[in-house]
Amino acid sequence: MDPFKPWEQLRRVLVREDWTRMLRLLLAMVVVMVLQVTGVASILPFMQLVAQPGVVEQSHWMKWIYDTAGFESERQMLLWTGAAVFCLFTLSVLLTALLNWQMQRSLAQTAHCLSIRQLQTFMELPYEYFVANSSSELLRRTVADINTLLIDVLLAGSQIIAQTLLAVGLLALMFFMHAGVALAAITVFAGAYSAIHLLRHAYAVRLGKMRIDADQQRYATFVDAITGMKSIRVANASAYFASRFDKASEAYSRIYPRLHLVMALPRHLMEILAFGGILLAVLILVGAGGDFSEVVPLLSFFALATYRLMPALHTIFDGAGRFSSSLPVIDAIARDLVPRPADAVTGQASAAPRSTASAVDARPSDAALSFEREICLNRVSFRYRGAEAPTLRDVELRVEKGARVALVGTTGAGKTTLVDLAVGLLLPTSGALTVDDTPIDAVRLAQWRKHIAYVPQDVFLFDASIAANIAFGSADIDFARMRTAARIAQIDDFIVNELDGGYDFLVGERGVRLSGGQRQRIGIARALYRDPDVLLLDEATNGLDNVTEAAVMAALQRQVPDLTVIAIAHRLSTIRSFDRIYLIDGGRVSDRGSFEDLYRRNDRFQRMVDASSDAGTGPATK
Q1: Concatenated DSSP letters for 118-184?
Q2: pLDDT averaged over consecutive 10-residue blocks of the chain (622 residues)?
Q3: What is the DSSP letter of 544?
Q4: Helices 74-124 and 327-337 sit at what angle, rounded to 10 degrees?
Q5: For a tag on the chain, would you pick the N or C end, based on fewer CB atoms within 10 A?
Q6: Beta-bridge partners for 377
Q7: Distance of CA 563 to the CA centre of its chain
Q8: How far is residue 554 CA from its own chain's centroid?
Q9: Which helix (H) or strand (E) holds 435?
């Protein structure tokens, strides 16, 4: 791995405000470092006053302090010096605590901003991206990986910088006091650190990757178990999913202590070296022939300096190890947050734009998009990433404003992909979607989506009130318009008369407190609340009984007659009165016409109608 790549990725992930906060922290670290080093240095004159009576007369600078301060005796000077040393240490401790608080606060703000940017980036990514990536992986990258970046990269990196400044200051002071002892300490500690870092770096990176993989398995299994609880219970598959989670959790539990040992081992080695260093300092100082009364103050200084140096070195070692093990996280977050070309996001060739967010930084058009005549798909083909064959081939389709058009065909024929293209979730591999002869590309999508509303088969409801779910993304709810939409969707009476709280009823996560048909009708009400020009229904009424479905379709035709409707239906009674039906077969439009025309002349459509579970779907005269 390129040793500079993580730093370059981190530079591009963090924005200017993040680096400004870092710079302020760095300046504060320098101030605190100077204060801490001064506190350590102050122990030397104090110990000289204790161990060497008459030292004031022997030292010019101590004599100057004695006279300037107006001390009456060395004992008085000793007491005031001790008090000053204590106050200096107390101040350095308080400022260090304040610095740590500010560091945590700043980095937490940075992590918050990164999480928001991560979510915003995901919201702008191509629909294909979410087809290819599991929700549990995206959740882990937005929550767990950001937390790892905060604790093991940003916080660890800041602590490394702060403690390195302190260590450099202490070593420089030690070198000034006694070059021989300081040189020995620098040689021993630097050599030991270099050896340990070289030995553990690659292993720590490998353990970090293993930890991410194991954590992803835990997230994936847990999300599957919770979201699929009903099916799991009915199938008596709880033990299977518990076993899957157990394997992932056990793998994580094996990796974590190994990673902790790799992080903690240098501290114990440094403690041995520090103890040996104190003994070595005593031997050097005594062996140099110095007077013991002169050795004691210097030895006290080195002991205190070592005492302050050890936690600094431990933090540096521990932070470096955590940083090394988290390099894969930096790479993963950089892949999400650093802008890339379209093909880097979707995995597609840049010559064939594939999706709505082909460029995360695409700018929406300010020009209004009109829909007065027709929607056209002109020789549209589409192939999913990794697929050998295209899902759609040279599709020609035209929908006039106000028309009701249906797409029918066997499972896998390409109907849903066709609707995804119409709503702009996907962009064609070739060909074009046009509205009144205006091509709909990534830049015009925002304007196009103002005209359309989409109801999928599996309606998404979030854990909020029915009113919030119908308004969906709108803070100011128009209750009159909402109830009108709910009446057309045949759900207003149920909400008002049968639900506790009416429109304030909480639907639960993904609408778990409602039936499938109720969720679909809320989805239809949500679509109509937007007052769209075009309504796209993807099996949006298959959870309704025949009577309710017929009432919904009749209300649509009666109350919004100018609404353009494009529907996918397997229950063919839904579309019998539609203006035009397109028969999709093998990714192509194989036939088109009214219900009766297709039934008379197309054997495949006739078999579909005859096989329908709805009695009386086909014409009376066969």
Answers
A1: HHHHHHHS-HHHHHHS-HHHHHHHHTHHHHHIIIIIIIHHHHHHHHHHHHHHHHHHHHHH-HHHHHH
A2: 69 81 82 82 76 73 78 82 85 84 82 82 76 75 80 81 85 80 73 72 77 80 72 70 82 79 69 69 63 68 77 79 77 73 41 36 58 90 84 90 90 86 85 89 84 87 88 84 92 91 88 88 91 89 84 89 88 84 89 90 87 51 36
A3: S
A4: 50
A5: C
A6: 397, 433
A7: 39
A8: 44
A9: strand 430-435
Q: In angstroms, what is the C-alpha Rg of the chain? A: 36
- Among residues 588, 570, 567, 589, the alpha carbon closest in space to that of 578 is found at 567
How far apart are alpha carbons 519 and 457 in whole angstroms? 10
Beta strand 404-408 with 564-568 is: parallel
Nearest to 47 by CA among 358, 336, 303: 303
Q: Tell me how long the chain is.
A: 622
Contacts of residue 490, Cβ cutoff 8 Å, sequence gap at least 6: 521, 548, 551, 552, 555
C-alpha to C-alpha distances, 422 to 197, 215, 451, 565, nearest whole angstrom: 56, 38, 12, 12
- Predicted TM-score of the model (pTM): 0.64
Terminal C-alpha separation, the chain: 72
**Residues 474, 530: Cα–Cα separation, whole Å:** 10
Report yes or no: 62 and 53 within 8 Å, Cβ to Cβ: no
List of residues 6+ apart from 538 with CB closer than 8 A? 415, 416, 419, 454, 455, 456, 457, 567, 568
- Two tokens at 593? 């016409």
- Cα 350-351-352 angle, rounded to 5 deg: 90
